[in-house]
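Hi R.,

Quick one: here's the histidine kinase sequence you asked about.
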Amino acid sequence: MQALPAKIGMRSPNGEAPPAAPLLSGDSIAARLLRIIFCCYFLVTVVVTLVQLAAEYKHTKERVVLEIRAMQQTFGPGIADAMWRFNEDILRGILSGMSELPVVAGIKVADDHGKLVRAVGTVLEGGAKLHAGADGQLRPEPDSDALFAEVFSQDFPIVYNDENGQSRVIGTWTVYSNQRIIVKQVEYGFFLILVNSVIKTCALWFIFLFVVRRYLGQPLRQLSQFVGQLNIDNLGDRVFVLNDRGQHELHQLTNKLNEMVANIKASVAENEQLYRQLQVEQTATRQLNETLERRVAERTADLVTANKDLAQALDTLRIAQDELVNSEKLAALGSLVAGVAHELNTPIGNGLLAATVLVDKTRQFSSDYSSGLTRRTTEAYISDMSQITELVVRNIARSAELVTSFKQVAVDQTSSQRRRFLLASVVSENIKALLPTINKTAFNVEQSIPGDIDMDSYPGPIGQVLINLVNNAIVHGFEGRSRGTITIDAAPAEPGWLELRISDDGVGIAAEHIGRIYDPFFTTKLGAGSSGLGLNISHNIVTGLLGGKIRVVSQAGGGTTFILHLPLTAPYSTANSSGTL
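And here's the predicted structure, written out as tokens:
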């Protein structure tokens, strides 16, 4: 038995498994996992750190504002007393002491008219940032555009209480601070937050690195080595066991790999058995080939003879059609030839198609025989031969039967001139013509046609359709019955149209036959005096020459009604301009 070429796992040309990729290489799962986790963790850490820094900054600024507001109770009375007494030395001392406080960037004192009295440090004057020198003069701030130099302030009134207990507002004093002072107070907290974030990130990195190496890398390396050693000639004799505690997804993958190896082993054993069986079948097939060739030659000769018989039958049919053309009128010729040709083309075409298929299958079988046959091919060919020869014989018999029936078929069709007439008169005349036939039976024909229905059409074809439908009711509708009634009535439809109904209370038409009643040569009494052309001819006359429609309403045991929907003025046709049907 030849070894199968498929391999399990990729291997190098010398038969060794390719080296496993490093655990944390750029394309490894572990490296991708670490990158994704730590990218997400880094983003979260940055956001949380920024939120902490912002909260710390806001809290420190609120604390600075509270300290500045507390200065009103501490320094307010002293500033008020110095202003009231115009004691600049005391005022200068108080302001100098306040400027040394960590939260103070500058102080400005103004009288009750808003005039500057004294300033220390960085203050705002007219929207501009100014700096008070040692001589008390205000000059532009040299680093007014520096980072964290934004100034905010708190205003306090200067209230003096005299000996009489009255309070007087004698000016305002303003304390200034800036962002640089707040940042300086929180920079140590900022540093601790950043160091904490870096330490946690590094620790988590090493923890994840250890976990990935231990619980993902080692099991994956074991699986890679196991898969790399597998091929069709070395499936191993033992079950692979993952050297790792617990039960997780990699254990499930290991179980599936073991199942796959077991299935491959079973498939290899089954293929060996099938190969031995195939050799036995090929030996038996070769013994059948000699007999089969002889049978094929015999069947081919039979099919050639059958084709000659079919051609001869077709020639006989054409001769019979020519004889009918000479004996029938021009209108009947079209209906009969069309019906016979359609009916015979089917079995003849089927026989020729079967013979062609037989030749093709014989040629293919000969080709397969040269390259070696299998039992399945031989059995399929024998089965096809049986079906094809049976099909040929059945269609030849059907063709011979149709030719025999066709020689016995005679259909009476009349020709008529186009003219104006009363429908009631035409129906009455045709019923009178049928009376000799009807009087021999126990069946009755009743007609109810209004006398004012005037038509410009072909009375002869209308009479022919009427006679065909009445005869059809007598022959088929009342089969097995001793009495029955045929009713003929008409009524106006939409403007320019009428409905002519021919009804019987007979046995009805079986549901499986409704769709075929207008087919040529379809009859339930073939060989018993019925040609199967009456309803086909009637349908062609109504829908063709008369320009109308015909439909049937019937149910088994409930009678049959043929409804003719006819125009009062038939369409003009050049084929009938001569007056013949």
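Residues 249-327 form the longest helix (79 residues).

Cheers,
M.
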